[in-house]
Amino acid sequence: MTTERTQQIPGQAPRTPSYVSPIPIRQANLGHALASEWTKIRSVRSTMWTLGIFLALVVVLGCMVAGLIGADTYLNAPYTMPAFFGLLLGQMCLVSLGVLVVSSEYGTGMIRTTFTASPQRHRVLAAKIIVFFLVAFVTAAVAIAVVGLYTQLTVDAPSNPAWLPTVFKGALYVSLMGVLALAVGSMMRHSAGAITTMLGVVLVPAILPPFLLFNESLVDVAQFVSDYNAISALSLIFEGSPSTGHGGAQTALLAGLTVVACAGAFAAQANRDV
Amino acid sequence: MIALEGLTKRYGEKVAVNNLTFEVRPGIVTGFLGPNGAGKSTTMRMILGLDHPTSGAVRIEGRRYAELRDPLRTIGALLDANANHGGRSAYHHLLCLAQSNGLPERRVREVLDVVGLSAVARKKAKGFSMGMGQRLGIAAALLGDPRILMFDEPVNGLDPEGIHWIRTLMQRLAAEGRTVFVSSHLMSEMALTAEHLVVIGQGRLLADLSMADFIQRNSRAYVRVRTPERERFLDVLRSAGLTAMETGGTLELDGVAAEQVGELAARHGLVLHELSPQQASLEEAFMRLTAESVEYHAHSDTPPAGERAPWGADWKKG
Predict the structure, then answer these.
(1) Where is this region: Disordered (chain B) (predicted)?
(2) How distant is the Cα of A85 from the closest Cα of chain B, in angstroms?
(3) How many CA atoms lie within 13 A of B100 on its CB side?
(4) Taking Cα atoms as reference points, which of B66, B50, B125, B65 lies closest to residue B95?
(5) Nearest-CA distance A140 → chain B (Å)
(6) Cβ-defined contact of B83 to A110 (cutoff 8 Å)
(7) I want to staple A222 with a disulfide (CB 3.0 to 4.6 A). Which of A162, A209, B1, B248 is the partner?
(8) Given this model, what pLDDT does residue B307 score?
(9) How many CA atoms, within 13 angstroms, populate the side-chain half-sphere of residue A162?
(10) CA-CA distance, A40 to B100, in Å (whole number)?
(11) Is there a contact between B94 and B48 (Cβ–Cβ < 8 Å)?
(12) Closest by alpha carbon to B63, among B45, B75, B51, B53?
């Protein structure tokens, strides 16, 4: 098959010079990407819903539980301890939001617009992680702190452990869980699949240990899973004792997992067709 | 300026885009034409660095897309009108794009105004009609006031007023010295807007030429005549050294002007019921060009009837 072509007349330059825009040129950088992602996360309703439910669960459930717990419990537990129950459920809200931050773009086709505007894909993902982490961390810290303040003001009981560190550690743990979800969502590109996967990551290790104990060679594994699952980790952060630790090792494990998942997400999106 | 060199995309066994080499120049509207499934969208995605070519390369003003430091200022694209988050308002959709490239917020309001969506700027995109979605996509493409614009099937879903608007817009953008690259599967649409044509079929380059050349090479001009004195008219033609093709009740004369035929008939006192200069449609020429490469043939039960035949069905037989 032959291709029809117009014979170019030698020396004929394009008729018009290229267009020059009056708008000043700014080289795009991470700051721009962060501003963009901030606009994205605050301009969709799913953010309001997931964070709203998270706040309601942690604060309402926490304040209700605060009065029901025996006053002597607080001798060895911080005033923020009632937030633990809400966080158990509430972390799934942050997981959902983390997944949606990325997967909704793939689901709607927005990702093509995003990557056309910002072909430096790593910068987009980095900005998403930073913005989401800050939003999740601040929201969780506020929720835990409100529960701590409420308990301190309403429960007439002394408390030995300081509660401020648990605000930081509890918020850090659930926010990392959300970032892990974001990375999983970025790799899977599918909202429902990624949320289900994360549900498994949170719940399966908590359910698994009794089943592992059927086999004696797995006793050590069962012990590890039992110590390091998400529910144990949160309970140690809020009710740990010097003998059990205060969830530091568990948070470190989650941080490690999150870093690995994020590395996977960066690698997966780098050369993928979208 | 967009330059493609040996661009190839393979999905397993299937070659979607096959060794495409061409340039899109500034100052004119370049039409990118091909039947459905010819590889137009895949080519456009590769131009934008969204899909990675199996081999070959694309250069945008001499650079790879990923190397562009101010992408929206360089190239604006409308790929798919629904490439936005339905829950986000038109304003916020454009705002997050503007911010990602450090463009001032006033550009958002300016482009909303240009495409006529200012009144619905705060409405969620999922409530938009197809035409409004298309306008939002065009607003996003115009956001960075770019030197290159690329539109994939921009008239889809637009009403006649919208179609007229987008044609005028593309021609104005080109006249300002920008590169305008627009895909379509409708030759008739391209004939009205494009000055240059790139035609592909099954991923291969079929033509890369100016619209004027395409028309000159591919369109057949003839004169149509209807007369009740058919035999006598044919005799007169023969004696004048002209031949006519008989089609149904009419005669078609090639290579002669309508005036000449009229004068000839008058000299011999012939009655004519019709005498009209005709131009074979460009759509036909385009179908002839791409006939072998049409991927999805429609098969109808009834025999194809002239120009209304399903896509390329009759060319396959010839």
Answers:
(1) 297-318
(2) 32
(3) 29
(4) B125
(5) 25
(6) yes
(7) A209
(8) 42
(9) 4
(10) 11
(11) no
(12) B75
pLDDT digit string, tens, across residues A161-213: 889 999 999 999 999 999 999 999 999 999 999 999 999 999 999 999 888 88
Optimal mutation site among B100, B105, B215, interface A, most CBs of chain A within 10 A: B100
Q: In which band, very low, low, confident or very high, does the pLDDT at B283 lie, cut at 50, 70 and 90? A: confident
Q: Which residues of A touch B177 (CB under 8 A)?
A: 16-20
Residue with the two structure tokens 């449609």: B281
Q: What is the pLDDT of residue B78?
A: 94
Cα of first residue to Cα of last residue in chain A, in angstroms, is 32
Record the pTM: 0.86
**For chain B, what is the largest distance between any 2 Cα atoms, rounded to a whole number of angstroms?**
77
Structural domain boundaries in chain A: 28-270
Q: What pLDDT, in 10s, does the model give residues B29-51?
A: 999 999 888 999 999 999 999 99
CB count within 10 Å of CB A107 equals 16
User: What pLDDT, on the 0 to 100 scale, is given for residue B248?
Assistant: 78
Q: In what order do the strands lie in the sheet with B244-247?
A: B244-247, B250-254, B221-226, B274-279
Burial of B135 (C-beta count, 10 Å sphere; 0-12/13-18/19+): buried
